[in-house]
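Example for tutorial group B:
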């Protein structure tokens, strides 16, 4: 009798163990048809000033769809006040995460304090900001504008040191015109500073004119057209984005000069039109600035929404394409 009772008890214990194990297994593999609450991200984009910006917006929207994130996307039409309004509306809506491209570096402290008071983490993307308190935002993901500027200088040092320079002699000084991006934006600041760092100690390079074209093709054309009306003695144009460069190339053609030959051209972004011009010999160096940050923004935002920390600064991978490369191997740019 006693043996039967012990055996029965053992069988009950084994059965209970199997049931508990199966229950735990079920928790681990929750059927994916159970709707997880969607993370809500408020995203403020600066506008649509260039092909690069449009590609960046497309990358973010596509990534949000793939990640199953609810994206509140607002276009600021190039105005900081519209961005601040957008961020305030995201706070009122109590989004899980705020992400945005700061059109300029300064003027964000107050709205970031409001987000912090509301307990909403902020991810800065593409362009950087200057704040009085570093902890006002969780982290940054984007491109390294200073490195882009240094790489522009590095190409020129190579170009003008090579014996095959068109007029077979090294010009002295090498006269550089710089067309900068939006005043006060981190890419314009970084590309300006990095370029000068790269030319430091090379006295034969002289920046004879530098002005802002606001990353706009129309302004690149207008500035270069007016400059060439007065002075055609330029050896290099360093343009902070391909949009302005395409306008600059039009102006150079209209003034009877050959872009890429009479005037060496260095540009940043690597949109397809610039790569095509590089292949045609109208541009000499294209520095990639990677717009495809959507997937990274979504994975970082999900971490923030789950209360996890993220890297303070994350720079995306970028290539350098020059006239010395095998240009047939450049992958299509997608924009
Ligand atoms: C750079 C980005 C710049 C691009 C331009 O990170 O902010 O803005 O270089 C764009 O094409 O308008």
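The residue assignment follows.
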């Amino acid at each position: 009798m006693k043996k039967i009772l012990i055996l029965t008890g053992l069988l009950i214990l084994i059965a209970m163990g199997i049931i508990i194990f199966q229950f735990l297994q079920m928790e681990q593999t929750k059927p994916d048809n159970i709707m997880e609450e969607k993370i809500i991200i408020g995203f403020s984009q600066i506008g649509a000033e260039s092909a690069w910006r449009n590609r960046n917006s497309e990358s973010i929207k596509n990534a949000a769809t793939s990640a199953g994130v609810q994206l509140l996307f607002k276009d600021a039409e190039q105005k900081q006040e519209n961005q601040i309004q957008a961020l305030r509306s995201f706070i009122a809506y109590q989004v899980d995460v705020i992400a945005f491209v700061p059109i300029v570096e300064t003027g964000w402290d107050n709205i970031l304090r409001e987000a912090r008071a509301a307990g909403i983490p902020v991810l800065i993307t593409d362009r950087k900001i200057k704040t009085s308190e570093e902890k006002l935002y969780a982290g940054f993901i984007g491109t390294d504008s200073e490195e882009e500027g240094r790489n522009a200088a590095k190409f020129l040092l190579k170009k003008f040191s090579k014996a095959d320079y068109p007029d077979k002699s090294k010009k002295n000084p090498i006269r550089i015109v710089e067309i900068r991006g939006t005043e006060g934006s981190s890419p314009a600041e970084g590309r300006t500073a990095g370029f000068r760092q790269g030319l430091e100690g090379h006295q034969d390079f002289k920046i004879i004119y530098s002005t802002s074209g606001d990353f706009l093709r129309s302004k690149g054309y207008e500035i270069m057209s007016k400059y060439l009306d007065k002075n055609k003695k330029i050896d290099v144009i360093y343009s902070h984005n391909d949009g302005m460069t395409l306008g600059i190339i039009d102006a150079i053609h209209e003034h009877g000069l050959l872009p890429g030959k009479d005037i060496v051209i260095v540009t940043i972004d690597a949109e397809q039109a610039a790569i095509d011009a590089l292949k045609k010999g109208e541009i000499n160096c294209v520095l990639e600035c990677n717009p495809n940050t959507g997937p990274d923004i979504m994975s970082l935002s999900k971490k923030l929404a789950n209360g996890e920390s993220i890297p303070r600064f994350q720079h995306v991978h970028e290539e350098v394409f020059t006239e010395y490369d095998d240009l047939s191997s450049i992958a299509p740019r997608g924009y």
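Residues 23-33 have pLDDT under 50 and may be disordered. Compare this with the pattern of hydrophobic and polar residues in the output above.
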